[in-house]
Amino acid sequence: MYTALGICAILAGSPVVTDVRSLVDEIRREHGLASVRPNRSLQEAASSHTRYMRSNRTSGHGQTPSGDGYTGRTPGDRARHFGYRGSNSEAVAWGDFGIEDMVRGLFDAPYHRVLFLQPATPDFGGSFAQGTLCIKFGGDSGDGAVVSPANGARNVQTLWDGIETPDPLRGANLRGAVGYPIVLAAFGSVAQGFRFVSARLTGPNGNVRSLVLHPGNDEHAERAIIVIPHKPLVKDTKYTVVIAYTNSSGSHRARSTFTTSR
User: Fold this and answer.
1) How far apart, in whole angstroms, are the C-alpha atoms of residue 135 and residue 128?
2) Whether the Cβ atoms of residue 226 and residue 182 lie closer than 8 Å to each other
3) Terminal Cα distance for the chain, rounded
């Protein structure tokens, strides 16, 4: 099985950095997670898809057999074409902006963020060239529940532009910019029987009104609980999120206290 998600954003002016993996590992270190494990098959699949998008001036996860550089109709097909047999996930971005902004933009988008938060050492391949980015993770890798922003995190962004496909704000009468999303992602045995119980985000003035997405109300939050504040957060301010959930092993509670950027 594979998960395919897409994001499109428009930014400009960032310097080009070619090492996608180092940027992903930097994000993972911020959450106390180990570095990814480079995988040649996933790397070739990611590189082939960036070439396809550039050559055909297209975007997204699909390829057509008549397209220049075709290696598989779906992300799963392309991974298998290059010899990867395990489950894998793909994220893509495109636009007139630099690789660091693109990788961070994918991570900031809550559905995509789940892919970055796999415990243990997931297999990985990533490619960036000429405004196209493709990242592939092999997984699941390990058991656990990971909260982002991590407990004790500082300089957390106050807002998110709301640009993601699928759109997590659909049907909620919200548009970006909104507050920076908080994500709890469950993996492995923790995801078995995963169910939402409650989520509460508080700041200096009490509860922060938020949209909460979870497996019970969003088919794209299959193994995640996502808290999106309706309005941008306040700068240089401490917030606490408490998320309660159940799974096959019982009831659990996760807590993270983080501080926004100045």
Assistant:
1) 9
2) yes
3) 42
Q: Give CB contacts under 8 A, 24+ apart, made by 115-118.
A: 115/3, 115/5, 115/89, 115/91, 115/139, 116/24, 116/27, 116/28, 117/28, 117/31, 117/33, 117/146, 117/148, 117/183, 117/185, 117/187, 118/33, 118/142, 118/187
Task: Tell me the residue type at 144.
Answer: G
Task: Quote the CA–CA distance of 255 and 70 in Å, as a whole number.
Answer: 45
Token output for 56: 């055909």
Q: How far is 67 from 158, CA to CA, in rounded Å?
A: 41
Q: How far is CA 125 from CA 19, 102, 103, 137, in A?
A: 11, 15, 13, 7
Instruction: State the Cα–Cα distance between residues 139 and 162, nearest whole angstrom.
Output: 26
Nearest-angstrom CA–CA distance, 114 and 255: 17
pLDDT of residue 140: 65
DSSP per-residue string spanning 82-136: TT--S-EEEEEEESSS-HHHHHHHHHHSHHHHHHHT-SS--EEEEEEETTEEEEE
Contacts with 118 (C-beta within 8 Å, 6 or more apart), sequence order? 33, 137, 139, 140, 141, 142, 187
pLDDT digits 0-9 by tens, 11-60 = 333 333 348 999 999 999 999 999 999 999 999 999 999 999 999 998 89
Q: In DSSP terms, which residues pair with 203 in a beta bridge?
A: 206
Contact 7, 104 (CB under 8 A): no
Work out the average pLDDT over 190-200. 97
Question: Is residue 89 over pLDDT 50?
Answer: yes
Global pTM reads 0.91
